[in-house]
Amino acid sequence: MSVLINLIEQKNKIEESKYQEGFLLPPATEKQLIKLQENSLRLFKRKISDQFIELLKISNGFSVNGLNVYGANTIESPIYLPGIIEANESFYEEYSLKQFIAYADENMSRVVFNLNT
Fold this sequence. Notes:
Mean pLDDT: 93
Number of strands: 4
Strand content: 15-25%
């Protein structure tokens, strides 16, 4: 996970140098992460992975090149980005999708974790 986080941070620095603005958001607070884990137990019957929590401690979600990685909670400014719980609550309206946790989306697809496997 640390390799992935390093790559994300490097990409953000490139964006900052090109556009004077990166895509990373402020990190999730400890309070937001605690509430996320409580809601995760309620919705998913399990906690969010430690690896994803580690990412949220760097940036509370982000959006880059069409990839939207959900945060601990919904962000409305400077961009709209759903929180992981809110995104999955709407995702779960389709019963057959309750076997997945969606961590991100990109255009017409979602990045998911299969709870059964």
